[in-house]
Amino acid sequence: MRVFIGESAVDVPEGASLLDAVHAANRELPALCHDERLSPRGSCRTCLVRADGRVVAACTASATEGVRVNLDDPAARQAAKGAVELIVSELPARALDVPPERSELVRACTHFGITGSSFSGATHDRGVDHSHPYVKLDRDLCIACGRCVAMCAEVQGTFALDLTGRGFDAVVTAGDGGPWVSSPCVGCGGCVDSCPTGALSEPGLLDPRPTTATTATTCGYCGVGCTLDVHVRDGEIAAITPARGAPVNRGHACIKGRFAHAFHRADDRLTTPLVRRDGHLVETTWDDAIATIADRLSSTRQQHGPDAIAVISSARATNEENYLAQKFVRTAIGTNNIDNCSRLCHAPSAAGLTASFGLAGGTNPLDDLDRTDCILLAGANPTEAHPVVGARIKQRVLSGARLVVVDPRRTELAALADVHLQASPGSNVAVFNGLAHLLIDEDLLDHDFLDQRTTGFAELAALVQDYPPDVAAEIAAVRAADLISAARLFGRAHHPVIVYGLGITEHAHGTDGVRTLANLAILRGAVGTPGCCGILPLRGQNNVQGASDMGALPDVLPGYQPVTDPAVRNRFAALWGRAVPERPGLRIPQMFDAAIAGEVRAIHVIGEDIVQSDPNATHVRAALRSCDLVVCHDVFPSRTAEHADVVLPAASFLEKDGTFVNFDRRFQRVRPAVAPPGSATSDFDILHRIANAMGIDLGCRTPSAALAECASLTPVFAGVSHQRLDAEGPLHWPCRAPDRPGEAVLHLDGFATPDGRAALAARPYLPPGEQPDGEFPHLLITGRRLVHYNTGSMTRRTPNTELLPAETLELHPADAAHLRVVDGANVTVTSRWGRATLTARLTRDVAPGQVFAAFHFPDAAINDLTSPHTDAATGCPEYKVTAVRISPGP
Ligand SMILES: Nc1nc2c(c(=O)[nH]1)N[C@H]1C(S)=C(S)[C@@H](COP(=O)(O)OP(=O)(O)OC[C@H]3O[C@@H](n4cnc5c(=O)[nH]c(N)nc54)[C@H](O)[C@@H]3O)O[C@H]1N2
Ligand SMILES: Nc1nc2c(c(=O)[nH]1)N[C@H]1C(S)=C(S)[C@@H](COP(=O)(O)OP(=O)(O)OC[C@H]3O[C@@H](n4cnc5c(=O)[nH]c(N)nc54)[C@H](O)[C@@H]3O)O[C@H]1N2
Ligand SMILES: [Mo]
């Protein structure tokens, strides 16, 4: 539709407002209650314009074909100016001191020629609330526009904020009006980001000096892949804000990506290489550290063969670094002993989705959530672990989508669900077979899809005969009636979507869990069909999808091309100039076993704290002690570093160049915003230096060249390059040519399985590896908390610790009474594998007989407790089920 803003004609889509048209014409118009992320409010009257003769608020008036908008109409302008003058008449003059780039109000005053004298009206003295480490409130600058309240409700879905008081006294308050930090605020920063006056601000922006540079990059915490703008002042990060219009996060973020950046200048950051001398790690030069590693890797290789070396690559690092790591291992060392933390996480997703559909990625983009009318959320806690996705799920549910949650704990979303199947840990396959039984029994099936595009229906139908609702309910300890309700909600939805996480994968039968969950999408024809919403694994680390995509895995080269395929190997060997070893290498748990058996003699770890994050830590420590050489690259002195012979200081994501692949298969750019401290450098640079010292040139000197090389060898990434990402923005894979778009939805033209059909899986329920018994009567579930991230190495070095200073053990009050434990008391948790001391926190969010803890704090060594049981198909640890005994006292 064509509209006219002054003399210029602009085209805007149907449904656009006049304000959108003004912005499309690149004209400024103050609009103090407006934010494009929110529904229009039209309350402040500062965007008045004349449109076809009438004075209207541009933010709420719809654009119509041919409408003529006059921004300079004297009457409209006078009325708008009056509205701003009325607002500022109640503000202190210091409202004008906020730098214009941070205050729409200051810009509005400039626009209308309003000066400090207009601010001399009544003044308040309502004070500040600086109780929260990140969200700082200056009440006297609040104009009660309501944008913060709307951000919290409409975008974040937390409803923590409100406007209280009347008229000019109205001001934002959090929670019940007490200190901000005690409110339900989750620190997403949406309110700060939208505030037009600086009433809500954040530490780095309270400093009046302007920031000097802004770099757009991708968040280095979880796999959602939010685009962030990093604002720098004097070479230091002043603030990080979500990029407006970013495809994944749409101008939203969470407390980690938005605020938890202080780690990058923490006092104990590694800035110099360390080498072990006489039992102690001491500082050394890069030349010495690199020569030590190169010499000892070379001699290990000579004496014991290349398979005596194992490398763990990093899902925190970029694609280009992972590409180089696997190239280094396969060419410079000559082994396939390379793996990444996908093994501990979503390896069962890769295996299960490949078996069901032929590709290892989630099938649909996040945006398809906007279309769904029923979400089956299984074993995932996105409001804590993927908060931007969690908020989007809440938005969908608030606008009417139904929600079924399968989780042994009452998570935030479980509490909001239509049906919460509080299934016992390890019972997923029984639940999903029970749901499949009901879908078949009640004929909630897509018969055409099943006939034309799937295999295995008869076998599945026969198997799930054994899982009528009462049987499945009994195994999972849920009510049969709830299973039936859940099956009907999912079965009758027009656009059902499945979203899942580690509660499905980190089990002794994790791959079976993924496959039986995928069955439900297949039975409904909800995957690979036009308009479907598909199945979305919430991949964990910022680049765990990418680390695996790049071939940092023992059995596949980039793009999941098998090392066992001679044609594939030859293609890589031809370009690399070295043979690619044909025998698949060791998986992470096998590396430790092999080290203890004396077969692996050197372990080289890039960006993973295996001593804190792998299960059965006693075994991991023993494995490291058995090695002749342990090397690690990290940002901080990790628990693993304590066992290393050489420790190299790595640059963090804020300091390097490359790409990540997020959970919905998007390649996105990572750009350096600040310089690494001291002599720290990128994992990319480190790998090149080690290879050079071993006399090998890995080629691809720059990250851009590395991705180009990878694309040239990998058909599904053939169209991806730094140049294209810089020019066009994120690209989904598969992206098969430079002139073709990425494929956001998979399998529309047929599944990628050998026969082109989706494979239903008839898998029986098998009990978990660990069971409670008389000696270990409780089940420990492990997982995550909002403000800390994995081993906590980064978030513990930020003010996030003010919000959560230590780990707790969540315990049901009935169990606590039985054990004579009160809230806040120390308890000792003992498993068959180790023990840990924690503080008890009583909550009904866990079921009786079950306890929960996260693994973010090294002094609450949760992985001293977890067992060596792993998923039979993939080796993924059974982190979610450990039998424990709880006793009062340390
Ligand atoms: N704040 C924060 N965010 C993170 C991380 C972090 O450490 N902190 N880590 C990142 C990483 S690496 C990952 S992989 C993701 C993980 O993200 P999620 O998969 O969401 O994380 P978890 O909390 O480990 O587990 C999810 C849920 O599984 C449930 N669960 C446990 N056992 C079972 C079961 O048998 N059946 C079912 N149905 N559910 C079960 C747990 O109660 C828990 O609520 O998060 C990423 N994002
Ligand atoms: N009990 C229990 N244990 C678990 C899980 C669970 O649910 N329960 N979940 C598992 C899962 S899903 C995962 S993914 C793992 C995660 O386990 P890890 O990967 O070990 O944990 P992280 O804290 O993410 O980061 C690892 C290290 O990388 C460093 N680092 C960060 N960025 C970079 C970089 O760019 N380069 C380098 N060289 N280093 C960097 C960090 O400082 C940190 O020490 O934990 C697993 N462990
Ligand atoms: Mo993970």
UniProtKB/TrEMBL annotation:
CDD domains: fer2 (cd00207), MopB_CT_Fdh-Nap-like (cd00508), MopB_Formate-Dh-H (cd02753). PROSITE patterns: 2FE2S_FER_2, 4FE4S_FER_1, 4FE4S_FER_2, 4FE4S_MOW_BIS_MGD, MOLYBDOPTERIN_PROK_1, MOLYBDOPTERIN_PROK_2. Residues 1-75 form the 2Fe-2S ferredoxin-type domain. InterPro entries: 2Fe-2S_ferredoxin-like_sf, 2Fe-2S_ferredoxin-type, 4Fe4S_Fe-S-bd, 4Fe4S_Fe_S_CS, Asp_de-COase-like_dom_sf, Formate_Dh-H_N, Formate_DH_asu, MoPterin_dinucl-bd_dom. One of its GO terms (biological process) is formate metabolic process. The keyword Ubl conjugation does not apply. GO terms for molecular function: 4 iron, 4 sulfur cluster binding; formate dehydrogenase (NAD+) activity; metal ion binding; molybdopterin cofactor binding; NADH dehydrogenase activity. GO terms for cellular component: membrane. Residues 133-164, 177-205 form the 4Fe-4S ferredoxin-type domain. In the C-terminal section; belongs to the prokaryotic molybdopterin-containing oxidoreductase family. This is Formate dehydrogenase subunit alpha. It comes from Saccharopolyspora hirsuta.
